[in-house]
Amino acid sequence: MERFVPEGLWQPFERVVPVAPVRPQGGGRGRYGDREALAAILFVVSSGWTWRRTPEAFGPLWSTVYRRFTEWIQARVRAELHRLVLDELGANGELDRSRCAIDSVNMQAMKAGTGT
Length: 116
Prior knowledge:
Layout: H1 7-16, H2 34-47, H3 62-74, H4 77-91
Helix pairs in contact: 1-4, 2-3
């Protein structure tokens, strides 16, 4: 687990991940930990494997990993983590804005477009 989710990544991530929902009916199988799910997500994203081929060594089934991924996307966890890291770097004076880049794409409207 430490290989895919080192402590330096887990600590800020733990601050932005939403609290696990409580099952209204109670009972059921225990929820896999967020760290295990994050490790599996990072493996799939970095390796290019499909969700269904997520190795069993991570613990959760592929469907659990995918469901957690979609939950976190909808909760904007990546955006919050990005903002948190930038805020901390800025507060520590470690953010070098001279190395920032802004990218854009401009395209000519074909057949003059409707807004011209």
